[in-house]
Amino acid sequence: MKEDTFAFIGAGNMGGALIQAVCCSADPKNVTIYDKAKEKTETLALKTGCKIAESVADTVKSAKFLFLCVKPNVLADTLRSILPVLKDETEKGSEKVVVSIAAGVAISAVSAVMEESGITLPVIRLMPNTPVAVGKGLILVSPSKNTEEEDVTALCKALSAGGETAVVEESLIDPATPVFSCSPAYVYMFIEALADGGVMSGVPRDMAQKFAAQAVLGAAAMVLESGRHPGELKDAVCSPGGSTIVGVEELEKRGFRAAASSAIYEAYKKTVALGK
Question: What is the pLDDT of residues 67-87, one digit of tens each?
Fold first, then answer.
């Protein structure tokens, strides 16, 4: 059976993390990357063993799964720049699946650009988060209706080294993006704040940061592995008259939960706006 091949246009932070994940799950010799910033591709190629394309056209020719790892505002122009070679390849019978990670950009918008040149191809929309870089991420996968199930399975398998994959309806992508993709930034701020509090209390900085990060990691594992509601788990830590409930009250007075919820909702509105 012929092995699947993968190509990436764009090797920034998120694209680079996905490239590394695919190179761990698939043969790096079947992975080709391209970015205008050659130092990025050279670093990734040295690290993973993948191949560097000399041009965008070469990238398109080299693979079945074509990842567009570019910003939403340049996605359409990037796609238009490769339409001639993409059309030529499809007319030759070369199988192609377009994979987009652009936040807020619907599958229909990607398909519409290809239709300008009379091209109809399967499109899979991905939304990953940055912990993919350390194999602890989550990647939402939403395929167009003309995508073969075996291609979705193959893509999820190739991404598996990055963490969990979840196939979802596209309507869930934008609302879910802030919850899991934007939120690591907020969690980092929380960890930093916990460490700051520890330093104020006399704990050395490096220890405070490690202890705070481990606490967040452990708390997340408790939610995922126990299946219990976060509120129930919180109550279990709060002994009557203890120090934890005093801290919870302080967070409540300062609007901790309201601020977190509002951050997610405002990020959702921005995500929707990015695709327009």
Answer: 999 999 999 999 999 999 999
